[in-house]
Amino acid sequence: MTLENGTLMPLRQYLKQTNIIFEDSSHGFATTDFITHSALLTIYPKDSRELNQVVVKLNEFKQPFHVVSAGHNWGYGDSNLSDQIPILVHLRLLNRILDYNSELGTVEIEPGVTQEQLARFLLNNNSQWSLDVTGADGLASIVGNFLERGFGHTAGGDHERASKVVEVMTVEGRVFCPQLVSSGSSHVKGLYQHDVSLNLDRIFYQTNFAIVTRMVVQLKPKQSQSSFCIVFLETDQDVANAVAVVSRLKAQDVIAAIPHIGNSGRLQKTTSSSVDARMNWVAAIDISGPSDLVRARKKILSQHFSSYQKMFLSTTRVNWIGRLINWLPAKSLYKNQFENLRLLNQLLSGTPTNDFVINSIGKDSKAPKKMNWIGPLFPSQPGHFLKVKNIVSQIFTEYGLVYSATVSVVSSRCAVMITEITDSQNIGISEQVLQECYRQCHERLWEVGYPIYRYGLRSGVVLENQMKQNPEYLKVYQSLKKHFDSNDLLSRGRWGVRILPE
Ligand SMILES: Cc1cc2nc3c(=O)[nH]c(=O)nc-3n(C[C@H](O)[C@H](O)[C@H](O)COP(=O)(O)OP(=O)(O)OC[C@H]3O[C@@H](n4cnc5c(N)ncnc54)[C@H](O)[C@@H]3O)c2cc1C
Does residue 75's CB lie within 6 angstroms of at least one atom of ligand 1? Predict the structure, then answer.
C-alpha cells in the first residue's frame, strides 16, 4: 500500500462528523484473490445523499477508492483492493427496490439489492416474473453482476442485455441519467434497448467511469412449464460438437437460454456429493416455456443428440424423484446425483442458492479458497474449443494444476470457457505461482486470438498491453475516464492504464 494510514485521518474525522458509517480496515472480508490488499477504510453510505458527500470528499482529498455493490464477486477479486487503492466504498445499504412494473416485468433497483432480496420480493408479490439468478450466493448483488457482464443460465441469462443503467453518480458528485429516452418524465425509462443518438448507458459496463446508482432490470416471464435437458458427453470432441449444435439452435431461436457444459472436475467442486466418475462432461440446457414449445424443443434436441445419453426433467419431475429418493440409503450414488439436479432445478427456477459458492470456496468466509477464474471467448465452431482447452490444460500441467471448467454458449456464435486457477489438490502451490499461471494463460490466449471476457480489479491490470496495442481505443477510453473522473480516483488502474496527467 503506497498510502500511510495517517493520511486518512482528515477523512475519518469528516465521516465521524457527518455520522457516515465506516470501519477501519475491511473486517470480515477475506478474499479469494491471490494477492491480498485489504482496505484501510471501508465506508458504508446509507443513501445516495451520503454517497454523494463521500465521493465529493474523496475527490477533494484526491483519495483513490473502489466501489462494490455487495463484494461477492468470487474469483474476480470480490472486495479485495490493489496496491494503488486504500479505500472501499461499500453500497450494500443502498438496497431499495424503487419500482416494480408487474405488467411489463421490470424493476428499478439500487446497487445493494441482492439476488435473494429480489427473488423474495417477487415471491411475496406473487409475481408472474422471475430473475435469472447466477451460481453466486444469495447475497451477491444484481447491479455488480450485471455491470460486470455476468451471465446466468436461462433465457434472461445475458445480463447486460437485460438491463439499463438509468442513473450514475460521477466522482465529482454529478448525478444524471445516461439515456435520453429514459430521462425526465419518460414513459419508457429502462424499457427501450437502445437510445436515440448515443446509447451512453453502455459505457458504464466494465469500465468504472462512474458509480451506478440506479438500474432497470428486465425480468423473465415465469414459464408455464419449467424444464431442462441434461446431455452426457464423453469426449472433448463431443463437447466441441455440442457447442456448435447448441449455438446453431440458438441462432434458430430453438434455444433461448445459455447452456452450460461442465466437466466432472468442475461439477465435483460445486457439490458436496460425489459426482459419478463416468460423467466426463454434462450439458445442462434450460428449455422452459409454454408446454407446446417445450414439447417442440424436446423433439429437436432429441434429434440432435440422438446418439448421446440424455434426460429431460421438469420441476414436477424433480420434486417427484425427490420424494422417492428419500427412501434410498444416505450414501446411495443416485441420492448424490439427485442433489445436483435439485440445485440446478432451483437455479433455473429463479431461486438463488448458497450451496455452489460454499462448496466451491469453502464454508469459512474468513479463509476462503484462493482462486481466480479465467474466461477465454471462442467462436462456437468445432475446433476452437479443442484449441482453447489444449492451451489452458497444457499451461495447467506445467504448473501442476488440475483442469476444471464450464463452457457456456453465451450467444449464437460465441462461447466462453471458464476455468478455475486454484490449488485444488492442496499440494502447496503458492499464490505467486497461481498468479504466474494466470498471467501465462492470459498472455497466451490473447496472443492466439482468444480474448478474456472479464477481469477483477487487480487482475485487470494485465490488460495494459491489449489497451496499448490499440492506441485510438486507448485515447477515447482515457478521455472518457478524464471526463467523469478527472483525478483518476475510482478503481484506479483497473484496466492497466492511467489517464494522462495535464
Ligand atoms: C461457485 C460460483 C458460481 C458463480 N456463478 C456465477 C454465474 O453463474 N454467473 C456469473 O456471472 N458469475 C458467477 N460467479 C462469480 C461472482 O460471484 C458473481 O458474478 C457475483 O454476482 C458478483 O458479485 P456482486 O454481484 O456482489 O458484485 P460486486 O462485487 O458488488 O461488484 C463487482 C464489480 O462491479 C463493479 N461495480 C459494482 N457495483 C458498482 C456500482 N454501483 N457502480 C459501478 N461499478 C460497480 C466493481 O468493479 C465491482 O468490483 C460465481 C462464483 C462462484 C464462486
Answer: yes
* Domains and their CATH numbers in the chain: 5-90 (3.30.43.10), 97-221 (3.30.465.10), 227-447 (3.40.462.10)
Q: Following CA atoms 200, 204, 210, 216 in sequence, which dihedral angle do they give, to the nearest 10 degrees? A: 90
- The answer on pLDDT for 386 being more than 60 is yes
Task: Compute the distance between CA of residue 341 and CA of residue 282 in angstroms, rounded to an integer.
Answer: 12
Nearest CA residue ID for atom 32, ligand 1: 144
pLDDT of residue 27: 66
Ligand 1 nearest-atom number relative to CA 270: 1
Query: Is any ligand 1 atom within 6 A of the Cβ of residue 147?
Result: yes
Q: Measured between alpha carbons, how far is 499 from 489 in angstroms, rounded to an integer? A: 10
Is the minimum distance from the CB of 68 to ligand 1 under 6 angstroms?
yes
| 361 close to 32: Cβ distance less than 8 angstroms | yes
Q: What backbone phi and psi angles, to 5 degrees, belong to 200?
A: -70, -25
Strand partners, 311: 230
- In whole angstroms, give the CA distance from residue 351 to residue 120: 9
* Tens-digit pLDDT profile for residues 217-231: 999 999 889 999 999
Name the one residue in this structure whose C-alpha cell is 444416505: 330
* Shortest-distance atom of ligand 1 to CA 134: 8
> Is there a contact between 272 and 255 (Cβ–Cβ < 8 Å)?
no
Q: pLDDT for 148-199, tens place per residue?
A: 999 999 999 999 999 999 999 999 999 999 999 999 999 999 999 999 999 9
If you ran DSSP here, which 8-state letter would residue 459 be given?
A: G
Is 82 close to ligand 1, i.e. is its CB under 6 Å away?
no
Pocket of ligand 1 contains residue 150 by CB under 6 Å: yes
